[in-house]
Protein 1
Amino acid sequence: MAEWESFRGIGVDLVEVERVTQAVKRWGQRFLERVFNPTELAYCLPKALPFPHLAARLAAKEAAYKALATPGLSWRDFWVENVEGLPCLCCSERVKRQCGSVQFQLSLSHTRQHAVAMVMARW
């Protein structure tokens, strides 16, 4: 518990997988490259069902915005990487300049219809 004494914020987001599916069908690669990091795409796209995984990462980005409550950040300022089989939220240098040395705790879950993410941020 002491490790989270400098707890700053929490964010939760729920994304409908169909919303992501339709965005990819409508805008294709342009949407994918605008919203997702190459690491995320390399992880998600080879999957038999990539859209729930993409939706979970989109939810993580939204949850991070909510946790930080910092205006002016973009989709590409956050990305999810798998480290030793666990999802970890990473952030850009711009986030670090605006928020300092922020660290995240991330939880993701998804079904074929919905994806949810919870982010806790601390400094």
Note: The CA atoms of residues 12 and 118 lie 4 Å apart.
Protein 2
Amino acid sequence: MDTISFELGILFLLLFMMPVLYIIFKSTIAQKRIKKEIQSLGKKQNLTIKNIEVIGNTIIGMDENHHNLVFSNIKKTKETFQIVPVGAIKTCAVKTGRIRNKSLDTVGLELMGPELKKEILFYQEEDESIAMDGEVCLHEVRKWEKTINQNLQLV
């Protein structure tokens, strides 16, 4: 009797875990494909993009050899691929919006320079295709703010 209960328990565990594992596996494959696509787009511009990360619906990376920041929307990678020279950036700051001082509405990075004003949007509350919590997204974007600001000092 105990063996049958144990086997049924394992069977039900596997039945419930299979969809979750499938989603994780599929997501991992999609992220690898997107990262390769960004690296390919960078190679066409003679860039070696490293430290590539997918945050929300945005993919961001840094070419440390030529000091360029690259980013794109994961849904339209080729169409929205952008290169920003780090030397053109004077300030980089996290930009957030909150709903009634409670949950995050938007999370982005604001890049400002003498001839540059760009906002990279990583998270929007209304976008249901983003499978990331706003606070987690904010944490990841703050790491990129720190990375970009460190690279500003090197240029």
Note: The longest strand covers residues 104-113.
Protein 3
Amino acid sequence: MAWNYQRDESSSFKPIPEGAHRIRIAKAEMAKASTGKDMLVLEFDVSGYSSKIFHNIVFLPDRPEITNRKLTQFFKSFKDIPEGDFTVANYVGKVGACQVKHEEYNGNTNAKVKFFIAADKAANLAPWKEPEKKAESASAPASGDGFMNVSQSVMGEVPF
């Protein structure tokens, strides 16, 4: 096979714009931080975007006022989660809102949660909008170049 390879480090990924956005909890779990402290690990879908935002709330026993302030902000935003409820399996699918900020890391711009927006203050945001899905392309038939489309595989599985 002949191919004229040219390195391409461009990315079609664009971070979620800074500002207020509705977010939906895609995943939630309790974990341990590298320091050994408990933390709440959250993954959010963002209204109208296919990108995700990741956020951790670390429980600081030596600074409970910081942890409680962050948790209060979280619970006020996600009104469908009872305040103080840490049954994280029930968090998935709940909708809240946050202010997004950008941070530079290793030359990349990443969208981060700056703070959660209380449900009453988020009332003026547009309602939740599912992200637009990319059109799925139909599989092209084998072109006689020696390659077989995965959908034509006899075993029905990718061979690697």
Note: The beta strands are 19-32, 38-46, 52-58, 95-105, 108-116.
